[in-house]
Amino acid sequence: MNMSERFETRGEIGHSISGVRDQLALQARVFTVAVGISVIVLGFLYYQYMGLAEKYADLQAAHVRIEGQLEAAIANVAKVKLDTEQSRVDAREVKSLLEAALKPPGAPTSASFPGWLGIKADGPKEAKGLIDQYKTPVWIYATSPTE
Description:
70% of the residues lie in helices and 0% in strands. It is built from two helices and no strands. The relative contact order is 0.03.
């Protein structure tokens, strides 16, 4: 089977060249449309990429800002922890000082008060009797302040 035709006149040759030209023009239009569509798609993708790049840059900036805030918060927590530990130490000192100050003193000695004799009275009547016995001013050490 022979698929090629022999053209014998100029009209036939011109007609076949015109057909080839039409086919090439159609293919050129299809190629142009394909290139145009691909340019539009690539432009859209580039636009999307640029939008994503801006969003990514914004996210990176937010990330850096959040990291800075976290570092500042960690530093503040460390400072608060240090202050809390120091406060605990100070509170222990104050507590021990308060306990020492509120601890009832032991019985007075002869060095506690000049002229102290160290006589013990079991009640207010005995104390009054001892005070009356000595005509000079006396110091009274009470172990029970309600009596």
